[in-house]
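Technical note accompanying the year-one report. For the benefit of new consortium partners, we illustrate the data format agreed upon in the data management plan: each record pairs a sequence with a structure-token string. No post-processing was applied to the example shown here.
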Amino acid sequence: MTAEIITIPRTALHERVADRLRELLVEGAIAPGVKLNERELSERLDVSRTPLREAIKMLAAEGLVELLPNRGAVAVSLSEQDVLNTFEVMAELEGMSGELAAKRITDSELAEIKALHYEMLAAHTRSDLSAYYRLNSQIHKAINSAAKNPVLLSTYTQVNARLQALRFRSNQDEAKWKRAVKEHEQMIEALSARDGAALRAILVQHLNNKRDVVMEQIRHPSSSQNLSA
């Protein structure tokens, strides 16, 4: 009997490499402003440089990596004004997503978002930041997808990528983390009621609160203690 040989398509490989590299960037294993060392990353991710370079190009298109002349690929580093500008746009995109999703979401989509929400609450209870952040991000993306506007989806994805590392690494005290969880509960209530105006307002406030926490962390990096997303 001849063993079956399964070939992983190159596209699947470089996308998997991009997922892992994105995780390293978002979770701070590769700090902002640091050059991506292809040799080290190839060894760390156990891949050749070809899919790694393709993955880096993907992340550059997302805004997580900058391709600089004579320096190569560098983890993006945003100025305070860049952060403020990006959150300003992101809050409006989140608000629009919520308002449209409330009108267009299906029962099955709503059920999936609720399931993610309960998983996120469990992650928060056990202080599992990686799981909490992953589920938190999935909820926001699912609301955006439920808006069923491909232009909005594309714009949202591009702008949101710029903030992922900051949102993951932002330091919050326990009260601020609980407030963020409470806001997510309010989102679920508004979405279940198909109340677009309420969901828009909650999402905009949620992003503005997040902006304030991120700016505090940037300006006073040692002032907060607990992590949230």
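Partners are asked to follow this layout when depositing records. The chain is about 70% helix and 5% strand.
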